[in-house]
Design brief:
The complex is a heterodimer. Chain A has three helices and 40 strands. By secondary structure, chain A is mainly β. In chain A, the strands form six sheets. Chain A has a 22-stranded antiparallel barrel. In chain A, strands 1-2-8-9-6-7 form a six-stranded mixed sheet. Chain A is globular and about 85 Å long. Chain B has a domain of 77 residues: Alpha-Beta Plaits, CATH 3.30.70.100. The chains are: A mainly beta, B alpha+beta.
Chain lengths: 695, 114
């Protein structure tokens, strides 16, 4: 019945699109105007919801608010489901935490920024993606490869920057409410107010909670924890003459209760309960002064701070931790006047320099990292951009380190752009925060007292073609990135299913960790209002882990990493944007399971190649229909329409006699590679008050 | 489980109704207005405001020509009503021409006659 309903749903959506095509004419309007000849009629094309910058030296893709409205996008982690750029998956099968992967490496190696200021670091990385509500976001910029040194040394595989709704441009009042079939509901209220000619302010509010106790795979564990999240943000923006400033404060409370279902608790002697409580306060003050308009000369000072407190209980394991962070960055930027030469107008030179200091305090240690940077940008017409930067930092834990980075963009023709980048990135690892998903397991942790600083080199190249086809444009891009760790830590889940081993690479000879990543992507507006994107990514991520059978370390495929991912995403918007239809299909490739993994009885989701077990590839399908009104819209969508679920995602949860007490050992909720909950239907509503005319 | 069955049936019925409605015949007319367009902002405003006027089926704006071509259902609205809508957003619209819109089939036949 479920499948029949699903097929009927798709059939009707297809029928509706066909009907629109017959009755209202899908193609360009055919005009018969006897007395007027309209030359160069501008067809108002649909603006791309994902765009790749043509002028930036960095490989930046921007997902704007239109892209974020294509799926439920409850929060930042849901924003990449229609995009090939970033992979999102559950970190474990018990806490609902989601982790991202960029260029085949964990999200810990992506520098997360909000409003171009480092955020979601350290403790926040486990659930930080859920802390940014979808309705608050104006745009997301995903930058692959090495990036600017302005924001620090932390970016290894790339940067993701989230822009919140701006008080100057957002609608005065907007509401977004959504509920899914499991009765998980969320409500967002955003406001923007122009106080006077100098000041404007915005208030963003979010709450979510509820949800039924679901156990689709009958392992006695809730598929998703139930809980509440309350999130509030206030921003003030001030602009007067040459001064521009911002103050932003955000407060958050998050509570998640998971583990055994109430039914399972009746039959298990020591029920496994998950109780995660987080309080967080963060904010920044930004000040910018324009010193010279002609030379774009300015100084900027950013001061940011956060306090993150979490009390987490995973069955018998308690992890209470707090992180205090303070960050200061002072920058000076100017163009260099070159008017004495004849060809001055063709060449642009720009210098950016600054001082920064970052402070992190955890219960076990603290770290202060002051640093300085210098970045030079050279442009030749609109053909060539060279961005070269270097920064030097001193860490109270790791000493002095230098970060050189270079990005180059060359556009020999308007229809062809080449980019290349290379640079170093560093990270201070945190034993537990980086591996929090393994707390939901009975693995014994074996780690060195002090972890090494992670140091990696990233290099890559992209090639983008903009091919005109009629009045439209086909965009094809191909890219390759390589990331290699020169120093750092390796998390080994192969040595034993009962242990989590973390090694410093420098403590053992010959340990390696690297990833090769190839991607090809094509996107085009095929007909007016109908866009299509197809992308394919292949990843070869390898690291040295201990092979108990051989008694030595061995370089092999990273466990639980999909080898490939394909995406086909299509979107159709009726001529006046009254209806929108979005469908995205994902094909997630196979991945290696850790040594010692035993294929569950009767499961056909795995295969064996020699001694190694792999999970098979699996499809994902999601669709959404949106009906727009003048100031409102209603959307109805479905996720995981193929209803693909990983069988027995929690190891040691049950046996032939029924539910197993996790304290008996062999319990592991972190062996997740696919969705753990079935298909999801959701319905939502958006309403906004239009911005009044300036005049 | 039963509730889900009903929800799916209702959604299917809703979409079928919408599909049938979309087949309904409209008396489509095309009018070309001259409008003082300055920038993409003006186009966005027209696309947002005029699009939701009753009977409007399509809008094509041209910034260089400063024209707005509106396809509308004559059973539901007329040119003076559309002009009033333009007045409300402070973008007065002057009629350049108007005609009945041809379907693709009729257009092909007209080409053959020529």
């Amino acid at each position: 019945m479920r499948r029949v309903g699903l097929i009927a749903f798709i059939l009707c959506a297809v029928l509706f699109v066909r009907a629109q095509g017959t009755g209202i004419n899908l193609g360009d309007t055919i005009l018969f105007i006897p007395d007027v000849e309209l030359e160069d009629v501008q067809v108002t094309e649909r603006r791309a919801s994902v765009s790749r910058s043509r002028v930036s030296a960095l490989d930046v893709q921007t997902l704007n608010s239109a892209e974020l409205c294509k799926a439920a996008c409850c929060n930042l982690s849901g924003s990449f489901e229609t995009s090939a750029a970033v992979d999102v998956n559950y970190a474990d099968a018990a806490t609902g935490a989601k982790q991202i992967r960029l260029l085949g490496l964990s999200g810990t190696y992506v520098q997360m920024l909000t409003e171009n200021t480092p955020n979601i670091r350290g403790l926040a990385q486990s659930y930080g993606m859920d802390y940014i509500p979808g309705a608050w976001m104006d745009a997301i910029q995903v930058s692959k490869g090495t990036s600017s040194v302005k924001n620090g040394y932390e970016s290894v595989t790339g940067q993701i920057n989230v822009e919140y709704l701006k008080p100057q441009t957002a609608n005065p009042v907007a509401i977004n409410a959504m509920i899914d079939k499991d009765l998980m509901a969320e409500l967002n209220l955003t406001t923007a107010l122009k106080v006077n000619d100098i000041a404007s302010t915005g208030l963003l509010l979010h709450a979510n909670g509820g949800g039924l106790e679901m156990d689709h795979n009958h392992d006695g564990f809730m598929d998703m924890p139930r809980g509440w999240n309350v999130n509030a943000l206030n921003r003030w923006y001030i602009k007067k003459g040459h001064y521009g400033g911002q103050v932003l404060v955000r407060g958050l409370y998050d509570r998640r209760l998971g583990g055994h279902t109430s039914e399972a608790k009746k039959s298990v002697a020591n029920p496994y309960e998950i109780d995660l409580t987080t309080w967080r306060l963060d904010g920044f003050i930004k000040n910018g002064f324009i010193l010279d308009h002609e030379l774009n000369r300015s100084i900027g000072i950013i001061a940011a701070a956060s306090y993150h407190d979490q009390k987490n209980r995973y069955g018998p394991t308690q992890w209470n931790e707090a992180q205090t962070n303070a960050y200061l960055n002072a920058m000076f930027e100017t163009d260099i006047d070159d008017c004495e030469t004849d060809t001055a107008e063709q060449h642009g030179h720009r210098i950016s320099t600054g001082l920064s200091v970052n402070y992190d305090r955890f219960s076990e240690y603290d770290e202060v990292t002051p640093g300085a940077y210098l970045e030079y940008t050279y442009t030749y017409l609109d053909r060539l951009t060279l961005l070269a930067g270097v920064r030097a930092d001193w860490s109270s834990r790791y000493g002095v380190f230098v970060t050189p980075r270079v990005n180059i963009r060359y556009a020999p023709f308007e229809w062809w752009t080449l980019r290349a980048s290379a640079g170093l990135g560093y990270r201070s690892p945190h034993k537990i925060a980086d591996n929090a998903q393994y707390l939901a397991s009975s693995r014994v942790w074996k780690t060195p007292d002090k972890l090494s600083q992670e140091r990696a080199v990233n290099a890559g190249a992209t090639m983008t073609f903009y091919i005109p086809i009629g009045k439209r444009e086909l965009q094809i891009s191909g890219e390759y990135y390589h990331t290699r760790f020169l120093d750092g830590v390796i998390t080994d889940i192969d040595r034993s299913m009962a242990e989590l081993n973390i090694y410093n690479m420098r403590d053992y000879r010959g340990l390696q960790s690297y990833a090769h990543n190839w991607q090809i992507e094509a996107t085009m507006e095929i007909l007016r209002g109908w866009t299509m994107t197809a992308a394919f990514r292949y990843t070869d991520a390898r690291q040295s882990t201990f092979n108990s059978a051989k008694g030595d370390f061995e370089l092999r495929e990273k466990a639980l990493q999909n080898r490939f991912k394909g995406i086909i995403s299509t979107s159709y918007q009726t001529p006046l944007k009254k209806w929108q239809f979005d469908v995205t299909a994902q094909f997630n490739g196979p991945g290696r399971m850790p040594d010692g993994f035993v294929i569950p009885d009767g499961s056909n989701q795995y295969y064996r190649s020699g001694d190694v077990v792999y999970h098979k590839w699996y499809p994902q399908l999601m669709a959404q229909i949106t009906k727009y009104f003048k100031t409102a819209s209603i959307y109805l969508g479905a996720e995981n329409m193929t209803n693909f679920m990983q069988e027995s995602p929690i190891l040691g949860a049950r046996n032939e006699h029924g539910y197993v007490d996790p304290s008996q050992g062999g319990f592991d909720a972190a062996m997740v590679w696919a969705p753990i909950n079935g298909w999801k239907l959701y319905i939502g509503f958006r309403w906004s008050l239009d911005k009044p005319d300036e005049d | 489980m039963k509730t889900m069955k009903y929800i799916k049936l209702m959604l299917t019925a809703l979409l079928m109704t919408l599909s049938i409605n979309a087949f309904a015949k409209a008396d489509k007319q095309v009018v070309t207005f001259s409008v003082d367009l300055h920038c993409q902002g003006c186009i966005d405003k027209i696309m947002h405001e005029i699009a939701y006027e009753r009977g409007v089926k399509d809008i094509v704006c041209s910034l260089p020509e400063k024209t707005v071509v509106v396809t509308y259902d004559a059973n539901k609205t007329d040119i003076p009503t559309l002009q009033k809508a333009f007045d409300r957003i402070k973008k007065p619209a002057k009629v350049i021409s108007s005609a009945q819109q041809m379907t693709q089939k009729e257009d092909n036949n007209a080409e053959k006659v020529k």
